[in-house]
Amino acid sequence: MVEPLRSPVRVPRPAPSGRSRSRADREVSVLPADAASAQSGQAAQSAEQAQPVEPAAGTPGKRSRLLDQIARFVAVGAGCTLLDYGSYIALGVVLGWPYWLAKTIAFCLGTIASYLGNRRFTFRAGKRGPRAEVGGFVVLYGATFAANLGCNQLLLQITGTGAGEFWPATLIWIVAQTTGTVINFVLLRTFVFPERS
Predict the structure, then answer these.
(1) C-beta of residue 109 within 8 angstroms of C-beta of residue 84
(2) Are 172 and 103 spatial neighbours (Cβ–Cβ below 8 Å)?
(3) pTM of the predicted model, to two decimals?
(4) Which end of the chain, N or C, is more open, meaning fewer C-beta atoms within 10 Å of its C-beta?
(5) Domain locations in the chain as residue ranges
């Protein structure tokens, strides 16, 4: 038979000299022995049941982590984008190199910076070893590069943009880059840097 818990008895506590204390600070709660052991048993049982729980998909914790990753991905991406775009314009427009070569070199520079930034900052390196991450990253960016370069070349052909045409080349670069960025975030998060469990 379980006995009902009895209310604690208030016992006055002497106040230290020189200080005035409130009534609540001067009293100590004392429980009868059987009530104290019952409460400590309940506390121990509660502590055993309390385990860290991973937020379910769609909960505020998961959404917050996703939004945080997206923000970090955008920050890393902005730096990589400036590197990629600057190289593309410098090589293709300023130096007059063929756009496919300018795009290839610019993409490679941006990819290296992206791997380093996303691994350390955005996704904080997943469960897999560095070789698996690098391998997945190379495969992902190889596919992304093909899609990015293909989109870039197709739009250059459709618009008839030639070497040295700044604004058309810039707009085409933006369309190709945006396509690659969306693909990258989803695949990096899912395959290359999966979340730790």
Answers:
(1) yes
(2) no
(3) 0.53
(4) N
(5) 66-192
